[in-house]
Amino acid sequence: MQPANGRHRVVILGGGFGGLRAAKALAREPVEVTLIDQRNFHLFQPLLYQVATGGLSPANIAAPLRSLVRRQRNCRVILGKAIDFNLETKEVVLEDERVPFDTLIVSAGAKHSYFGNHQWERFAPGLKTIEDATEIRRRVLSAFERAERVSSDAERARLLRFIVVGAGPTGVELAGTLIEIARHTLKKDFRRINPAEAHVLLIEAGPRLLPAFDPDLSEDGAEALRRLGVDVRLKTMVVDITDAGATVKSGDVEETLPAATILWAAGVQGAVIGEALAKAAGIQRDRAGRLVVQPDFTLPGHPDIFVIGDLSTYADASGKMLPGVAPAAMQAGQFVASVIAARLSLAPIPEFHFKDPGSMATIGRGAAVVKLGNWKFSGFFAWLTWLFVHLLFLVQFQNRLLVLMQWAWNYVTFNRSARLITDTNRFLGEPEN
Amino acid sequence: MQPANGRHRVVILGGGFGGLRAAKALAREPVEVTLIDQRNFHLFQPLLYQVATGGLSPANIAAPLRSLVRRQRNCRVILGKAIDFNLETKEVVLEDERVPFDTLIVSAGAKHSYFGNHQWERFAPGLKTIEDATEIRRRVLSAFERAERVSSDAERARLLRFIVVGAGPTGVELAGTLIEIARHTLKKDFRRINPAEAHVLLIEAGPRLLPAFDPDLSEDGAEALRRLGVDVRLKTMVVDITDAGATVKSGDVEETLPAATILWAAGVQGAVIGEALAKAAGIQRDRAGRLVVQPDFTLPGHPDIFVIGDLSTYADASGKMLPGVAPAAMQAGQFVASVIAARLSLAPIPEFHFKDPGSMATIGRGAAVVKLGNWKFSGFFAWLTWLFVHLLFLVQFQNRLLVLMQWAWNYVTFNRSARLITDTNRFLGEPEN
Questions:
Q1: What is the 8-class DSSP label of residue A61?
Q2: Where does the FAD/NAD(P)-binding domain lie (chains A, B) (predicted)?
Q3: Confidence band, pLDDT 50/70/90 cuts, at residue A411
């Protein structure tokens, strides 16, 4: 720790839940914070599926990073992309600039993993960015539009089949919302097709959905989804994805499901920049491309480099893994800031203890599963809880009230007003007509 | 007029103000309406500049066409792109389908005109579509971001110069909003630059801004813009635009203005499909690519083909031209529907009389100019009037209340929350980092 040229320089890579919290927690410390992100906004990822399904607009769940730290005079924001690290000179290498640091916090997040099948990506986009969300929205709405116009029954069935791969919270939320769109939102919009005939499948390789939840909540969730009309298939592997559809395998039975729209919610891996960091630090990444960190979130042998959030793998003293959720990233960001402050003031270094705030997932219209401590419940009250908590965490955004109103409107009218087909098809290269 | 195979088939090309109004006006007539558009939504273009400047989200000013005619059982919607017409067989030729009609209404609108200088388009995008708006938003916000990071004073000045070409309502609104963003919204967001130093120019070839308004309102508008800080330059021609900036000429004085962001609001021409229609109908287009129509909006020699809105040129008996504004297109749509109804019921054919509802333009925060009949006024009350009328015409959208709230919020806080840099650069091909 050599405070260079005045104040100690903390560079934070990534303005997600972990990085932003760390930046804010350092507001009153004697440090100069530089927050680097390749996007100009902080994204509230838990509601991204609402953008993908036309319920909310991108700006409802994104807030400009500069606005968020506007009043924090010791923090500046750089819109830039990190491509490497020089740990000798202690610099983050951007495409067109080098940013020196005394302490580095890397919270660059995760991206999709197709488990080695990169060729599936163009046929089955994942949901991590605003652009992913508008692309999925475009695909879903375009499928209904194309179905209205085709004459072949087989092609119409293919266009009206929607496959969601992976039954974690995102997959469950996507499947639940897709069936609501088909059965309610679009009910009277078409003249030739009946959108309610859409076939929404949720494919999960494991034995239950929402594996991070208690088994009885998984049961409740599967039950609720099936009641809404989703075809939930557990213990089912995806073995191939093409532009025609997906091939799945359950036991020894292989089946090819023609489908125009396939969404990937099955796996994540550490962000690409993690590779450069691991190489620079001389350490290995785990199989999911994450960096294994010490009890204080530093990299082994690099006490000035912290890695938090989805790019890190963290186990507590008892071996329990820190989950890849927003509260864990935020608590890590807060903790790391307190370590930096303690080091600078020569105070005792704190220890990290994760306070699990519980977990929750919506299933669809008016249904959710919630686990808060030992308290588990599902159904409409769980959904209200989910709604309340998500609005609460949107608190930093001016959009909170707008989101609440839009949700209330959507709930009462079954409408989803942000049903726009915009931009070109990024994967298949067919220009918007 | 040969009602074919049952009911009379009316095909409407374009779901803008004119086409949508015509479709709705035919709801109770004994006709089958087919509304064809290449986008799945109706766009409230007068507020597009709010999207381009981060004040509203795209979905706030767009509504799915299918929703708008959901309850109109005699109307179906086709998402498709017209490429030609066969007037022998009476068919609209789409890329993948032919749609037969008994009566055709073409309301395909207008696109930008660069007066023969197509090479300017990539450096100076216009504002006609949602994608134009998000692209302009991306350019404006990126310019400030890049200015924060450059070391050269000249390059910083270039990045902080914004040139709007053309001082009709769109140009005036863009210039007024850009100066508000620079002087208020972004005021405290940066650490190295002072956004208030941005230089916003409004370039107009004619002798006054808002030429469709009375001269004294043009004066008031120019005065208000200058008070806000906009550099208004009248009688100034743009002679060249490159990626470095714009060259303008005033009298004999030519000046090159280095600028990273140039927005085009200077000219429009009829939509491309107008060329195919003119060719099929054997008529000429005017210099702005529009089709000159008869007093009943039909093409000469083609009583079953109506052209309304910005694709048509219409002069009344006294030679007065119908203006290219939303109320004119809507009244034409309503009128054309009544002509079709009268023909089918063998009733007397009505005559068209444009009822001018007045005109208005916002100048910026709390300022506007309004002309209602003989009543002309400007300032804050004019701005409230502008606000009220625009919300009123958004009435068909569920978003009306959301827009009002967002405006109220923006007005009080000076904030513009939809400040997202998204998507790739469509013109210059540099990928989003």
A1: G
A2: 9-333
A3: confident
Domains, chain B, with CATH or none: 8-38+80-112+269-344 (3.50.50.60), 118-266 (3.50.50.100)
Inter-chain touch A40–B141, beta carbons under 8 Å: yes
| ipTM score assigned to the predicted complex | 0.87
Instruction: Sort out which chain B residues have CB atoms less than 8 A from A144's CB and list them.
Output: none
Catalytic, out of A32, A173, A180, A204: A173
Give me A198's structure tokens: 């859409």
- Residues B329 and B312 sit within 8 Å (Cβ to Cβ): no
Does residue B173 carry a catalytic annotation? Answer: yes
Q: Are B336 and B308 in contact (CB under 8 A)?
A: yes
pLDDT digits (tens, 9 = 90+) for A115-129: 999 999 999 999 999
Q: Do A421 and B39 touch (CB under 8 A)?
A: yes
Beta-carbon count within 10 A of B142 CB: 19
Spatial distance between the Cα atoms of A224 and A379, rounded to a whole number of angstroms: 8
**What pTM value is reported for the model?**
0.90
Interface size A-B, in CB pairs within 8 Å, comes to: 137
State pLDDT tens for residues B209-238.
999 888 999 999 999 999 999 999 999 999
Which stretches of A51-186 are assigned E, i.e. beta strand? 62-64, 75-79, 82-86, 91-94, 98-100, 103-106, 110-112, 161-165
Alpha helix segments (H runs only) across A297-379: 326-344
Contact: A406, B402; criterion CB under 8 Å: yes
> Which among A40, A63, A422 has the least Cβ separation from residue B417?
A63
